[in-house]
């Protein structure tokens, strides 16, 4: 099974894949250079020094016959053309959100809705991030009530696992006859 982890620049996608993968994740992190100045918006994450330029990949074995493949996408819009291949065959997605920069999530969610990809929203809890009630976040992100929204700490394996379990439960509920 294939799941994609998406979100804006610097929301914790690489961190989530790394924290939950049973293998050392494959990452395509590269040092940020002057070439991105004026092209990439790093407001709110100015101390970030590396960025994903293609994808992150991790794996979780559920059983001998069932494996969950995790693909983390690049967050900068200039790399979004890579999403086409990453979404091929995906069952669903996790949208990671940073409450310090909610606006970087709008286009991400819009792209998933346009593609018809089922997703859950995981609010990554950064230490200096403001906390908002779930309903306020849901309204700000214009999310339908049926889309699950959970808090997480992408650095913690158990928290990232719980996000993936939320996605699996959601996908299962969509597959049930109405």
Automatic annotation (TrEMBL):
User: Which InterPro entries does the record cross-reference, listed alphabetically?
Assistant: Gliding_Motility_GTPase, Gpn, P-loop_NTPase
- Keywords from the UniProt entry: ATP-binding, GTP-binding, Hydrolase, Nucleotide-binding
Q: Which SUPFAM superfamilies match?
A: P-loop containing nucleoside triphosphate hydrolases
**Keyword Repressor annotated:** no
MF terms (GO), sorted A to Z: ATP binding
Pfam annotation, one family: ATP_bind_1
Family stated for the protein in its record:
Belongs to the GPN-loop GTPase family.
- Put simply, this protein is called ATP-binding protein
- Organism source for this protein? Streptomyces camponoticapitis
């Amino acid at each position: 099974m294939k799941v994609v982890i998406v979100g804006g620049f610097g929301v914790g996608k690489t961190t989530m894949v790394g924290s939950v993968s049973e293998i050392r994740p494959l990452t395509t992190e590269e040092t940020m250079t002057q070439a991105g100045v004026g092209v990439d918006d790093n407001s709110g994450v100015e101390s970030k020094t590396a960025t994903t330029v293609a994808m992150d990949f991790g794996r979780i074995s559920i059983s001998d016959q069932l494996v969950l493949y995790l693909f983390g996408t690049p967050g900068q819009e200039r790399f979004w053309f890579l999403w086409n291949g990453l979404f091929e065959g995906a069952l669903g997605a996790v949208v990671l959100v940073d409450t310090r920069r909610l606006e970087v999530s709008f286009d991400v969610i819009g792209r998933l809705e346009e593609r018809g990809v089922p997703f859950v929203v995981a609010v990554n809890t950064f230490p200096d991030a403001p906390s908002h009630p779930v309903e306020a976040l849901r309204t700000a992100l214009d999310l339908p009530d049926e889309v699950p929204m959970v808090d997480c700490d992408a650095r913690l394996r158990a928290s990232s696992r719980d996000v993936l379990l939320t996605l699996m439960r959601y996908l299962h509920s969509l597959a049930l006859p109405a």
